[in-house]
Records
---
Amino acid sequence: MSGLHAAIIMDGNGRWAVSRGKSRTAGHLAGADAVRRTVEAAPGLGIDILTLYAFSSDNWRRPPEEVGALMRLLRRYLMAETGRCVENGVRVQVIGRRDRLASSLVREIESAERATARGQKLWLRIAVDYSARDAILRAALRLSRGLDAEQSGVQGEVASPSGQISRQDFSRLVAECPEERAHDVDLLIRTGGEKRLSDFLLWECAYAELIFTDRMWPDFGHADLDEAVLEFRRRERRFGTVPAAAGAAKSGKAAISAVRDRSGHARPDPEIAAVAMP
Ligand code: FPP
């Protein structure tokens, strides 16, 4: 994985539909087509991780018919697209809670994840019943249990002999992928004209470039993703340092506490930022 991690808040399905005299469900249906277009376009634009916000933990508050329609749509999407994902090297993973999802949907998720596990071209992460604050809270709880276990002599999940936790280790806990490298978001796109994060990937977006577009999600396509990536590439990511050339000229050395990230940009060294636990 050496490309970009793009994350998308797919907003505007309801307004797109209502403005056309259609039901909100029709908007979500059109939104699923936009998901297909985006998944197809992403690898060609240098994106190798794509995280899509399909259903937030707060979305359970929507009318039951809309929740039901969204859940059916997710299941149908997985059923219809898994074969194509295997052919195209797309690894599918669903993030978020599973204990409140219907068992038929959980089975479909597990089967899609198993079938696509070897995909190397794009890692497609679909957030369902997802809350970033809950993910951070769960990570903190698991950390404190791990440290408790360590203190009592039992090897904990993230036991660290010095009682320290690095940002990289905590990122793995937040992402709930202990065996893999956790990846920060490079660019976050939100469609539909609103400008907020809505409890999506709050830890992972610490240094994400934020791109907001008025385009409603069902209208989003290859050209919009291309434009967002171009805008991202025009931005200078400094991660708290000074511009490389100016910094090097002033101090004689460039960005002392920064390392290069997957996109070749400077970023803070997570190991430097280890935090001691009380
Ligand atoms: C927000 O728009 C969108 C959602 C809550 C659902 C997103 C779902 C999809 C795009 C389709 C299914 C997903 C996959 C991965 C197949 P909104 O309904 O809040 O729009 P509004 O702000 O205009 O009301």
---
Amino acid sequence: MSTYDASFRVWRGDAEGGELRDFTVEVNDGEVVLDIVHRLQATQASDLAVRWNCKAGKCGSCSAEINGRPRLLCMTRMSTFDPSETITITPLRAFPVVRDLVTDVSFNYRKAREVPAFVPPEGVPAGAYRMQQIDVERSQEFRKCIECFLCQDTCHVVRDHEENKVAFAGPRFLMRVAELDMHPLDAAAEAGLDRKRTAQDEHGLGHCNITKCCTEVCPEGIKITDNALIPLKERAVDRKYDPLVWLGSRIRRR
Ligand code: SF4
Ligand code: F3S
Ligand code: FES
């Protein structure tokens, strides 16, 4: 088993401010960055705050930025980096810092609450829902989301623009709107809820200019842009230029 000492720069601080501190930590074969953070806690910085839970890439808790890229600490192998490289670990930039590597991600829970839930079809008892396999597979991809919020952190619409957070739900929640809008059993329209209109007017779909950075950082490999956001944009545009929808809105305006 090979062992070496690696150089790390870790952000220490709180909501008032902080700085990068230098550490040298032992690295062993097969380790991930979270192992190093734990060794750092055990040997040199017992009060270093980090959020984690499963250490298996499934709980979405250990999100942070490694050399400026949003990543899961538990799924980033140390073998990704050259042993001579200094590895910088910082908290998620788009969310307020609580302490050290822990950020306040409650923005995402507020956005989650703004998306109306699945509306069950009337007259179909639970257990009797039937869907085509192709529709099951389409939404299954979106259901793999572990809510790590790396996509929310990386999207340039909010990353450096705090002011956009009010109007923009972010890729994770626009994907949720897309999933529900594609759901063949969702009866939102019958209940008077137009998910395509709310995607534009309430969740800020128009802010997304399909840069695909969200897709690039998703640890579940969900094709957020190609399979959720672009189809949702197409459906919203279809609705806007549908002559019947246009006529209906003109009549309603009178
Ligand atoms: Fe994380 Fe991917 Fe879900 Fe975004 S879509 S929260 S990157 S798992
Ligand atoms: Fe942002 Fe993803 Fe769109 S990064 S701009 S939500 S494609
Ligand atoms: Fe659960 Fe990293 S600790 S995803």
---
Amino acid sequence: SSEGDQVVINSPETLGALHTAASFLNDLHPVAFPTETVYGLGAVALNATAALKIFSTKGRPPDNPLIVHVSSRRMLQSLLPHNYKLSRSYELLIEHFWPGPLTLLFPCDHSLIPDIITAGQPTVAIRMPSHPVARALIAITDAPLAAPSANSSGKPSPTRAEHVLNDLNGKIPLILDGGPCEVGLESTVVDGLHEDGNIRILRPGGVTVEDITQVLVAGFSDAETPIPHILVHRRDYLDDALEQAPTTPGMKYRHYSPSVPVTLLRSTSDVPLGIEPLSPSAFLEDIKHVTPHSPDALRVGLLMPSDSILMKSLINDATIQWHEFPLGLVSEPAIIARRLFDGLLTLEREEVDLILVEEVSEEKEGLAIMNRVKKAAGNTRWITIS
Ligand code: TXA
Ligand code: MG
């Protein structure tokens, strides 16, 4: 329920760990904890000293604002300006998607929320996570927690406690292990504060544009006010140079890149003018020019749907050492989303020379998947798949 702090924790060990984490947080130390999207690096949000430690631990640019996490509707209200009334759209979105992977922008009460959290924005981003450990931690700490993903800035977000340990070991006092994250990609960031009443998707994520559209269409069906438009900020790798004013500060940074080069493989459906698609065998000849860092063979990671036709045609070549990380069926983008970051981080640990990621359709979770993949990929090749 989004009404109150109604998380039940049965295990004494879990409760003990939560209290230990809460005392680190109240002593202004950052702590890593699981959410349903990705692992977060939390600090008490209303204290600038604590929030500053998040930036130094991650190496995060100070102009990239943080999301504040709450465990109850009451805690949300305590952060908002006095007598602030939620719009009909926000009421609907909160009713349907909280707790869950949806972040909303609100007007910021600057007397309460430190500038470091909002990085000078007039708004503050807030979400209520659904992971029971996240909500219990916030409730026990009895304070809203600012939390970016618990990775060094620029790396893929962690979806397992082990990913956090591999990256931040020695830099933070505690990681709460809540198992693998169910959603696997970060929350959808929504700005519904514009005067036109429209809903802007600043970052696609765990809640799909299709889900949001459905809820708003149904929720406004009997209203005199028109159904808000849902505007998706489709920022492509191709638009990078063109973009002047990113609508969410974080989107201007190169993100999600493992230390291994990543190539995005696209099918021939929308080949840009002037690009000649390659056959899979011509592409294979091409990657054999990559210098392997082990003397035996070139190691190539494959991050592709488990029923990928392209994957089948590539692995025929036995001169390459293939590291397959099947993502899930093409027809199940939610599973692909769940496994994407795990795949990038796992293949990086296996010390492959190159990671090949196959594009998926930008429907449902596919939109967020492709947003992250395009940011991770250093280049794109078009392949003919027959
Ligand atoms: O699922 C998630 O959202 C995870 C988990 C831990 O909750 N957190 C997360 O935080 O992804 P982070 O810091 O990695 O991404 C926050 C995004 C950034 O793109 C940032 O620019 C944007 O939210 N953001 C935060 N405050 C904003 C604001 N006031 N206006 C516009 N964008 C904002
Ligand atoms: Mg992040």
---
Amino acid sequence: MAQVQLRDVVKRYGPMVAVNHLSLTINDGEFVALVGPSGCGKTTTLNLVAGLIEHSDGDIVIGGRVVNDLDPKDRDIAMVFQNYALYPNKTVFDNLAFPLRMRKMPGAEIEAKVRSAANVLSIEPLLQRRPRELSGGQQQRVALGRALVRNPRVFLMDEPLSNLDAKLRVQMRSELKRFHLEQRATVIYVTHDQMEAVTMADRMAVMNGGDLQQYDTPARVFDAPANTFVAGFVGSPAMNLLPARVSMQGTDVVLLGADGWNCTLSAGNGRKALASGSDEIVLGARHGAIRLLQEETPNTVHGRVYTVEPTGDITYVHVHVGAALLVVSVPPEVQVAPDDPVWLRFEQDKLHLFDGRTQQALS
Ligand code: ATP
């Protein structure tokens, strides 16, 4: 396996910048997920590492060697796509053997490698079947097996689970994780499904508009989003983000919400807000960081229930505060109905503060 480095990589399509000065190190044996909204440059980045498209600037380094001018076949990488790309008329065995036959490997060696990969992926009983005789999950395993037999230095995966139904996706997620653990593989994995990134990846790279927004462990990206984009993108339901002005009332630091609410900050949050020097702040609060109360209490924000969404073990309540719509979670036994007046308390130790101008997190 090998480390992969992108050093200040740029990809332009005419005037359009698809990948903008991207620097990223994927360590040997690390599983990194590239996430971000549609069109943010995830697939382009993967294809640049694979060599399927040429970059405009910067260096791509695999295993310590600059591979800018190397053909895809010489980069020693294997790709797994969402459509599997299996040969329909070949058996599973022949699908797995194909890349090895292309390399003119001796038959006995091919047999051993195919059996070993089939064993790892528990597809031995399927070796004589054809792709159409397999379920989606089995086909996906064969596609993975075909990548595995080549013993590549790096696995590149582009939404490999997106054609599977929800239940199978969850199962394959855990199998892929196990696969990574056992193979100690370097994996770069493109997905639009945050759950896949959060559950499988050692680190996730969040991209937007060709720019890298944050590169960190899923826990850090969730708990300490670098800016309002990451805060709003990672986590479901999305974090509540409320623009506000900072004001002093006596010794208290008070946020005056653009939507008519106000909230006195704790001493710690107040210091943070003042230290930024910015009088415009964005207050970030996940649904679990807001307490919903059914009577007025000091330092709460008044709102009105818009909709109630029970999901089983948690109920999401959407609350209008002025023009803003916030989502709050409550235990399922809480009785609340549309149009009820409610009061919201921000849990100070769970709040995020962002600079209103730069949108960057305040520290
Ligand atoms: P998705 O999740 O929708 O697959 P993505 O994050 O993988 O999106 P990319 O496919 O990497 O996004 O595309 C990044 C940007 O580059 C997009 O704006 C896209 O329209 C543009 N783009 C991609 N390929 C080309 C091309 N061949 N010519 C021109 N523009 C392109």
